[in-house]
Structures are given as C-alpha cells and as structure tokens.
Amino acid sequence: MNNKFDALKDDDSGDHEQDQGSPKDSEKEKIEDDDKEQIIIKKKMVVPGAGEHPLQYNYTFWYSRRTPGRPASTQSYEQNIKQIGSFASVEQFWRFYSHMIRPGDLTGHSDFHLFKEGIKPMWEDDANKMGGKWIIRLRKGLASRCWENLILAMLGEQFMVGEEICGAVVSVRFQEDIISIWNKTASDQATTARIRDTLRRVLNLPPNTIMEYKTHTDSIKAWEDFHGLVNASGGR
Amino acid sequence: MGDTKYTVNESSLKGEKTQLVTNEEPLMAVLQKDTINDVAANTCEIHSASKEKVEPPKLEDGEIVGHHMTKCTDGEGINAGGISPQEELLVQLTYLQTEEGIHKHACQAQKLKPSETSNMVRVQAEESNSGCSGDKRLEDKTVFEATECWDEYVILSGDVNSNAAGNEGVLLNPLLFNTQPHLDVGVQLDAQTSWHFPAGPGLTQEVQCPLWHFPVASYYPQLELTMPFEVVWREWDECNQKDQSSLIPFSVKKMSMDFTVMSYNILAQDLLEANKQLYVQCPLEVLDWTYRCSLLLKEIENWTPDILCLQEVQENHYHEQLYPALSQMGYTCVYKRRTGTKTDGCATCYRSTCFAEVAVTKLEFFRPELEMLDRHNVGIVLLIRPLIVQEAVVTAVGPPLCVANTHLLFNPKKGDVKLAQLAILLAEIDAVVKSCKAKGEHCNVVVCGDFNSVPHMPLHQLIITGELYYQGLPANMISGQEDQSNKHCYRHLRAPLWPNSLGINDLCQYTANTNNHTSESTSQKSEKRQYTREFILQFRYCPAACVRPQDLILIPGVTNINPENSRDDQQQDKRFRHILRHMLDLESVYKHFLPRSGCPEITTLHAEGGNTVDYIFYSPKRDFAPDQKAYGKSAGEGLKLTGFLSLLSEDVLWSMNGLPNHIFPSDHLSLLARFQLDINAE
Fold first, then answer.
1. How far apart, in whole angstroms, are the C-alpha atoms of residue B349 and residue B327?
2. pTM given for the model
3. Rounded to an integer, what distance in angstroms lies between the CA atom of residue B603 and that of residue B590?
4. What is the pLDDT of residues B326-378, one digit of tens each?
C-alpha cells in the first residue's frame, strides 16, 4: 500500500486505479498555477504538411512516468509529465508514433496520453472538468494493440460524438494495463454510451469485458479522500 | 391429362414434334398435388388444369425463355406467396384465370412471379407471354419424364417449397418446381430421341439434333417467330431451396426478385484463327464466325439472361453483329476492348427492362509504368440497380448490384500477373461496394469471367477464401493451368507482389488517392476528416513518417525508437504481408464436379484438353435463423443461388468432337446462374 500510495501521485495519469485497492490516484493533479504555465508551453499550432491527410483536430502526445522512490506530491505529476509533440495530419502522427516505444514495451509505471491540442491530460483542464472517462483494464500483453486501435479510432473520428472526445490514456502498471478515453461531458449519457459502443467495436472487445465509466469529479474526490486533502486547494 | 400437357408442350414446340414421351407419372404427380390444400398446391392444380385446357395453338411464343425464369420464379413465388397475402392473391387470381382458359394470364402470372414478388410487371412480358403457364406446367410434368429417362438428372432438393402441409404433395412439389428449366431442353430431347445422354461414344451419330421452332422470347416480340434451334444438352439444376418462407409469419413483408447471369467466353475469331492447332478436331464449318455467331445468339436468346458477361468479344464482331442483335433483344451493352494489339475484349450486357445503370468502370490491367503489369487484359465493373416496375411504370429501384466481368491473362507462367490483375478488379469492386456502403446501402456482388485459373489452385483460392499465402509459390502454379513450356525455370513469388505505386494494398483495396471512391473521398462527404483504421495504417511507413520530428523530445527508452527497427516485424505484418487478402465474401456458383457422376466439370475444351477456368462468383446470402430473417435484418444482403445450368464433363464433350461443335459455338461453355435478391418492402 505504501508503494501504491507513492505511486498514486506520480503516475497518474490516466487512470486511476492503477493498483488495485488504491483509490484512484490522481490523474493529473493539481498543479500550482505557476506550474501550469510551464506545462502549457504554447507552441505555435502545427499544420498538416503539403499533400498530407489532415486530421479533424490536432493532437499532442504526452508521456509520464512515476519516479521511483519519490514521495507523492502535488508537484510530481506535473513534473513527471512531458509533452512529446503535436501533430496535425495522419503522416505527422505516424512520424511521432513510429519513434515512440509501444506501450506494451514500457517498463514501470508509465503512461502515454494523447489529447487534443490545447487540452491538458488533467482533470482540471477546462475541457475535462465536467467530464469523465471510460476505463478498460487489460491483462498484460494487450496494451500495444489496443492502444493503437484506440487512438486510430480517435484520430480517425470514429466515435462520432462531435467534439466530445478529449483524449486517451494508456497506463502501464504492474500487473495490468489500463486504457481510457476521456470526454467532455460526463452527464451526457447518449455520448458516453456511444463512446462505449464504439470502443467495443474498435477494440474488438469480448462482450463480457468490463467497462467502467468514471467522472473526473469522482476521481478527484477519491484522490482527495485518499490523501486527506478534502479541503485542500488543489483538487477543485 | 399427361397427353394434354404434352400437347401443350408440343404446341409450344410448334407442334413439330410428336410427343414420344408420354408421361403418366407426371400426371399422377399433378393429381396428387391437387389434393394438397395449400396455396402452392392450388397453384399447381390450376396449372395442371390450365394445361389440360390449353390448346396447342395458343402457345406459341416465348416459352423457352419463360421456362427457366418462370420456373424459378414459380417456386419462389409460391414461397413468397406464403409470405404476403397479396401475392398469393395475385397468384391465385392468375391461376383462376388460367383455369378459365386464359393462358395468357397464367403466363403472366408465372412470368411475373418474380416480378410480382417484387411488384414488377413487365409490360412486354404481359403482352407477349401467352400460354406460358401451360408450358410451364408441362415442363413440370416433363420433369418427371426427364427423371425417368435421364438417370443423370438429379434432383438436388427434396425440400418442400411452400408446403406447410406435409403430405405427398410435399415430395412432388419440389420435383415440379425444381427441375423445370432444363427440362425444356431435356424434354424435347427425350421426346425426339430418347437418347441417354452419357451413353458414350457415337453420340454425334445418334443424336439427331431436333430442329424445332424456337419460340420467340416473350420479351422480344419483334424477333422472328421461328428459328431453327438445336437443343442444348445441358441440364438446369435447381438449387436446394430450404423453405424458410413457410416459417415466416404472414405479416412480414418480403419481396424478392430473380435474375439470371450468364458468363460466356465466346472465342474471338481472330484468336481462333491464330491458334488453329487447338481446333484441328473440329469440322471446318463450326469454326466459321457466321455460323458460330448465329449459334451464339440463339443460345443467348434461349436463356435470355438478365445479365450477360461475355469475354473474347472481337471488336468488329461486337459492332457489326453482337451489339445490334443484343440491343434488339433488349440489352444495354458496355464494351471494353483489350489494350494493345489484340482485337477482342469484354462485354457486359443487361436487360434494360430489368436494370438501370448507376456507374461503369472499364479497367485496364496494363500499366505502362509498372514492369509487371505489362499484359493487355481488361475488365468491366458495372453498378446497376434492378428496376421495380408496376403497371409499366418504374416505381422504384432495388438495391445496388455490382457486376464485374473480366478475362485474366492466359499465360500459365505468369501467376503473379494474374494475381495483380485480379487485385485490380477486386479493388475496384471493393470501391464500388464501399461507395454504396457510404450511402447506407448493401451492394451485392457478382463476378464473372474467364480467370484462366483452375479450381482450388491459389488464384481461385484467393477469390473464394479471401486469403492466399503466396510467399514462395512458383509463379506458374498460381493458376493451376498446365504450363506447356519448360517447367524448370520458374520464379517464386515474393512480397511485395506489386509495387505500392499500383495504389492497391494486400487487401486488394485501393490505397489513398488512387480512386474516387476510396474511403477517403467517402469520408469527406461527411465533411469530417474521418478515416478508418485501415486508411490511417497505410501511411505508417510513408516517407514522411520515417523522419524523426525535430521537436520530438528525446526520452531514452521511450522516444528513441527507430521506425526501421519496428518496421521489419510490423511492416510485413501490417503492410504488405506474405498473405494476400480481399474483403469481399464470394462463393462460386459451380462446384466443379458434376453432381451425379462426380466427374470434373469443365468450362473449356480444345485440342490440348479441358478445364474449368470460367466462373460466376457471387456474394452469398449467409444463413440466418428464420426468426432473424423475420425481422428483415438481412434484407437485401446477399444473393441466393436458386439454380444454374449444369456443365458437362470432358468425356461428353469429346464425344461431340470437342469444342466448338454444332451445338456449342465456342471453345468455352456458357455459365448460367439464377439468383434471388431480396428487396426491401416499402
């Protein structure tokens, strides 16, 4: 549990629940204001190259990893998450993706996040704060393929829920891997149902696969409870 | 009664023949039938009644054509009849009329059956089909004769067509329904010669090809009424029709239509003359184009397929003889000559009263920029829709149907080229199907042609299984054709089979940009940049994707991956694998063995031997539980094969001195199949 405790803070990202039994750890946590500035390094918007196949939205890859042995702290999440790069076309996506390790080959507590450009992979982001996510836990060995299928569906606008999709996360954990997809409006059941159905289809999930929808509000509350931070500022 | 019927028959045959065959059995069958209570039974009765009443003089035209089509229809119509009360009524009405001696109506009823089912009424059909019903029935009876005299005749289906009540009628019904079409032929033969088909050598001497007046196809009254017609010695096989219709509640509205498809390599005269050694066994006169052309047109007219896919159509013959004749028969034709110096090509024709054209693509397999695609073969891909005609007015169109026709490269050594040519054809079909899908419609597929490949060899396997592991296969084994040349120097196939610049992937689908109807353009219709997984995947290793992004932060172990490293594993895997696939679900009409004897059936024969190289493939209706069907879930998806014209064995053809001969004008036989297509009830 202690380890988990540590883990919570650091890793996070997408999934909470990385370790069983632990409260959802924070996804992205609380970021001090100043920190925020740093994270959001505004780059000029990327654009598709000539002759390339533009995506409906630009996206940004992020990577985060728990630093072993460090205590959980509100800063660690933010310190540990790195923007890898942004892209605007199918070709540019592959350019990044091809130079990145497959999630199944990652070691330790690590996460890849792929979010629309301008949306940080954090609960607190304006785009996320009313939102939630579908979570699918995978046994080891499936993450690479599922992640690829998930993000191809997202980039290719296969979810058909307008602008609702915010991003996707794959979290590599000790005994399992977790993929999740975030959307803007947790209360919009039609949207969440559609996302669920599309997930099933694009991931080719067996019918009995357990899928869990969790609102970010709940995630935050759980995180705060766990850390005794109910009244603390960071959480919202 | 039997006599009466016969009379009808003869009459239909213009009374030239005296019926040698008396069939008592058929009569009995009919009688038994009569006892049956259900609609089907009734219909039968009426039919028989009508026949009895039918006067020879009445029946003059159109039966031949009518037979097959009608027959099938008939059986099906009844099936369908179970489904919709209206149809039943129609049928019954028609029959009633018949009973009253109005043959014409009967005719219509049957003829239109298919159409009725689909609410189609062909005006011409109405007018011209006189006495059809009578004929038909006759045929039914004749079936019996056929069964008797021709032990070859196989009844494929013992199913009850629409008899919910299972009494004796059950058994009889199927017989009646099943066998008809080829009976026309069979009966006549029977009547005249009593010749037993497989009897062996000396065939030519024994057979007196009966000259009888070929009744004008009912659809085309303008044709001459009398033409000498030589019997086609091939049998029509009705396919097993399980009757699900009886399980379907009346309330379910289901309409269907039947259509027939013929694929025929007609042997271009220029090729014949360039390869005379292949036809040394043939009497000179059967090699004469004028003679062959007349036989050919008669054969087409005889069967009057709704869709006709011809190969080896010589350009001048197309323009001078075939096109005019086919137009007159009511066909709309699309012709594509081979590139290069060869003078022949493919023609796809469809009956304008049955189908409307949506789109045509003429494919050239010759690609000057690609070394391997240096052969001048072509194909035609047609997108059509059945017309639903009510009272002479087209009231609607049915679901789209993609009809592809090709003649692949002959050269047995060039299996890789054949595969690439096939891939081009399949990619075009795939694009057409996708374009329909983008509009929310399911598009059924029929692929016809001379594939210059024998059954169960790699190319054929790719078509019917959707998958071929080709790595390392010798190029001269792909088609399975015998390679007469030196077999010692053959090449082995290696991935990729063709360069990316062909714009076709190993799923036999167009990659980006090569074609208007690719997934890309479809996606843009929705005004969103929507891409399928497959679409995105094809850019995985595009040059732009292999360059490391300048702004990619280097994280050891995370972002320092070299795409080339992963490429070997993945590229083979995901991109051009050692496996070629296609995503169309295709099944062959012919199973390549004669049902009774188990002998291989062949579609082509010349001095160097016989083989199956011609095919009709189609997207089959996959079985669903009846209850699912009742929900109309699968409406319009998939074709149901309801019958086909059987092929012959090599022995039989040799006994006729090979091909071409006085009966079959080409060195290939025609392939003919009938399909049933569900049409969504509105």
1. 9
2. 0.51
3. 10
4. 999 999 999 999 999 999 999 999 999 999 999 999 999 999 888 889 999 99
B553 and A95 within 8 Å at the Cβ level: the answer is no
Q: Does the predicted interface ipTM exceed a cut of 0.90?
A: no
Mutate to test the interface with B, among A52, A62, A95 (most CBs of B within 10 A): A95
In a domain, A171, yes or no: yes
Contacts of A87 in chain B (CB under 8 A): 549
- Host domain of residue A209: 52-230
- Nearest by Cα to A62 from A103, A18, A4, A33: A103
Is the link from the previous residue into B660 a cis peptide, with omega within 30 of 0? yes
Where do the domains of chain B lie, and which CATH numbers do they carry? 254-483+491-510+576-678 (3.60.10.10)
> Residue A161: which CATH number?
3.30.760.10
In a domain, A23, yes or no: no
Q: For every residue of B13-56, which 3-state class applies, written as one string? A: CCCCCCCCCCCHHHHHHHHHHHHCCCHHHHHHHHHHHHHHHCCH
Is the Cβ pair B540, A94 closer than 8 Å?
yes
The 3-state secondary structure of chain A, one letter per residue: CHHHHHHHHHCCCCCCCCCCCCCCCCCCCCCCHHHHHHHCCCCCCCCCCCCCCEEEEEEEEEEEECCCCCCCCHHHHHHHEEEEEEEEEHHHHHHHHHCCCCHHHCCCCEEEEEEECCCCCCCCCCCCCCCEEEEEEEECCCHHHHHHHHHHHHHCCCCCCCCCEEEEEEEECCCEEEEEEEECCCCCHHHHHHHHHHHHHHHCCCCCCCEEEEEHHHHHHHHHHHHCCCCCCCCC
